[in-house]
Amino acid sequence: MMGSTHALTGWCAGLALAPAIGAGSVHQALAFAATTAGFALLPDLDHPGARASKLLGPITGLLCWLLRHASAGLYSITKGPRDERRKGSHRHLSHTILFAAGLGAATTAGTRAGGWYVVAAVVVFALLLAADALGDWLLLVAGGGVVWWALTASAEAELSQLTGWLGIAVATGCFTHCLGDALTEAGCPFLFPVPIAGETWYELRLPRLLRFRTGKGVEKFLIVPVFTVLAVLLVPGAWPGLVGLFAEPTVTAGG
User: Fold this and answer.
1) Judging by beta carbons within 10 Å of its beta carbon (0-12, 13-18, 19+), is residue 133 exposed, middle or buried?
2) ∠92-201-88 over CA atoms, to 5°?
3) Using only C-alpha atoms, what is the Rg of the chain?
4) What is the DSSP letter of 214?
5) Helices (H), the chain
6) Which residues of the chain have pLDDT under 50?
7) Which of 37, 100, 173, 253 can pair with 130 through a Cys bridge, CB separation 3.0 to 4.6 Å?
8) How high is the pLDDT of residue 51?
9) Sorted alphabetically, which InterPro entries does this protein's record hold (predicted)?
10) pLDDT tens readout for residues 155-202
């Protein structure tokens, strides 16, 4: 999938999940969804040309190098008899449920230890990732949202309520990325290390007729429009507001 599609589907997944973890206010739901959108791009940190690898220059570049070598090393010692002859540096370690769960657990531990400051740092980092994929307009919207938040609510108190739960947003973002890649022709080995058909890194994918190529017609003209609409409708209060906007006014007796 394209980076923008990963971020868009991650945003929708975050908004859909936010009420289930108690992020009931609009502020919390948007912060949770922004985190999910950003971390839906993070698994591609294992590719030097990816947006995530270039985001913070040499810092994310070094993380990319470390992740690629760790992934290649793990692949070399765990590949099954029928696994492909690959280096295993891209679309392997970071594209697994284990990676998503591990990064989510680390985020939970970090936010519980550091409080709302760490929560804010994770959200900002994720927002930068998402904005890099979706466009700078997202930063303008987020900036306006921060001002609105400061005027209408206690940002510190609401961010503190996300402490511990933000790990779920991070894990969900990574998992959403894997599901997206599993829809493409390349597939995704996100069930590692479960052995399937003699492969430890078995690429799960849809039946051949349902797969699509990254950046081609199905993604651009079907998946992106559908999730763009969902990205708006899933915002808390958006659907009732639209229904009310287009609903016919009730005529009262004598009116």
Assistant:
1) buried
2) 40
3) 20
4) T
5) 3-17, 26-39, 51-54, 58-78, 97-114, 116-134, 137-152, 155-161, 166-182, 217-218, 224-233, 238-246
6) 251, 255
7) 37
8) 87
9) YdjM-like
10) 667 677 778 789 999 999 999 999 999 988 888 999 999 999 889 999
The predicted structure's pLDDT at residue 86: 87
Q: What are phi and psi of 204, to 5 degrees?
A: -75, 135
User: For residue 239, what pLDDT is reported?
Assistant: 56
Q: How far is CA 162 from the centre of its chain?
A: 17
C-alpha 44/C-alpha 60 separation (Å) is 11
Distance CA 175, CA 94 (A): 10
Tokens of 21: 């973890």
Q: How far is CA 25 from each of CA 141, 151, 201, 214, rounded to the nearest angstrom?
A: 17, 15, 40, 35
Q: Which pLDDT value is given to residue 27?
A: 78
